[in-house]
C-alpha cells in the first residue's frame, strides 16, 4: 500500500513521519465533525502560523484556497525540495484566534 499524499505539498506522508489532521473549517468556527485532510505536521503548522481561525473559516476552507495563499505558496515551493520526513521549526507561533 502506498503512503498517503499531503494535499498541501503533494509529497508522500510515510507512516513514521509526524502527521496531523487539519479541519478545513476550524472546530472553533463550527467545523467539528466537518471535513478533514491528512497533512505533514510541518505543513499543518505552517497553515496555522500563517492564518487565523477566522481567516481559515472565511476564506481558506479548501485545499485549493490554502494552496493559493501567497505565503503558503512560498512554503510549498520550499518544502517540496525536502524529503518527506523533513521537520523544521515553523517561525513564529500560532496566529491568534
Automatic annotation (TrEMBL):
It comes from the Bacteria. This is HNH endonuclease. The lineage of its organism: Bacteria, Pseudomonadati, Pseudomonadota, Alphaproteobacteria, Rhodobacterales.
